[in-house]
Amino acid sequence: MTTLSTRARGATTALAVAIGTLLATGPALGWGHRGHAVIDRTAIESLPPDGPVFLRNYLSLIEDSSTLPDDWRDDATPFSRMEEDPNHGWFQEQFDFMKPIPRSRFEFILALSKQQQKLAAEHSPDALKTNVRWTGTLPYALVEVYGHLVNGFRSYRERQARGESTANIETACAMFVAQMGHYVGDGAQPLHVTIHHDGWQGPNPKGYTRDHKIHGRMESGFVDAIGLSDKDILPKVHPLDPMDGDVFESVLAYLTESGKSVEAVYQLDQKGAWTDASNTDARELIYNRTAAGASMLRDLVVRAWKESALPRTSHGPSSIDSSNPAYNPETGSAPAARSPSVR
């Protein structure tokens, strides 16, 4: 009994220290290093034998780089921040008017701009936040880096076939995995896919907290206090999904699924769960969400590996060819074609 009490006191102290450190250093960004690193490590550990297993040699690099995209959001580098900041969120309630979601970052931005102008003309207060800063661009960032990874794997295969060293391209691929893994990890965090990311917004009949610190209490303070590790979530990683359909649609579905846990985060907060490292329901939510992130990252890496084995040819008219039937002169490009089959 004494031992259990001591452990409980230790966990509570650790959580208080973690939250204090977090709040002293500014707003929460992503899962925090532990959460992102665990998601990435688990994904690479779960690769099948016929996947890009050379990535296991770069586990330390991938883990260490897992939060680099958050560093790119530093106010000291304003151009980097402006470009990167929207890539970490997908506040789905903000663009309910947009169906289907465009298959182009530029088409998405253009649609937002037109809606913003409409709302401004109507003197609607919603015009202030109808822009990429307040809607996010996470799925675009994710699939864009996915394309980098496909090309990286393709270069790896070609250099290997020529008997050339693959060391440098292996490092590049590991960095792409770390970057893509960050966006996948952010997408697994329910508060990254809702307008309620930093406290409940708008009508609040259930009395959820409006405290912006809920974000940090959950994803960093609690995660650090429970000492989240790959051993916690490896048993919960999903079976490998061949993911032969369209990648962009799979990413959107993944983000929608994550959003189903938003209220659970707030309900747990009402019970004080995010400041109680022994709370089993809070632990279970963290384990399930990080396992979902690791599963998705593993599946995307394997799919990119398979796609890299396809011939290096276009799967349709170039997106920047004005003769493409879908070419939009307002953006100077056509939306991306559906992903090729990798079976």
Mean pLDDT: 91
Helical stretch tally: 14
Strand fraction band? under 5%
Largest sheet: none
**Helix vs. strand class:** mainly alpha
How are helices and strands ordered from N to C? Answer: HHHHHHHHHHHHHH
What is the helix content?
A: 40-55%
- Cα-based radius of gyration, to the nearest Å: 21 Å
How many individual β-strands? 0
Gap from first CA to last CA:
56 Å
What shape does the CA trace take? globular
Structure description:
This protein has helices spanning 2-24, 32-45, 59-64, 68-71, 78-84, 105-121, 132-135, 138-161, 167-188, 214-225, 230-233, 247-259, 262-270, 280-307. It contains 14 helices and no strands. Helices cover 55% and strands 0% of the residues. It is globular, with a radius of gyration of 21 Å. By secondary structure, it is an all-alpha fold. Residues 1-29 have low confidence and may be disordered. Helix 1 (2-24) crosses helix 10 (214-225).
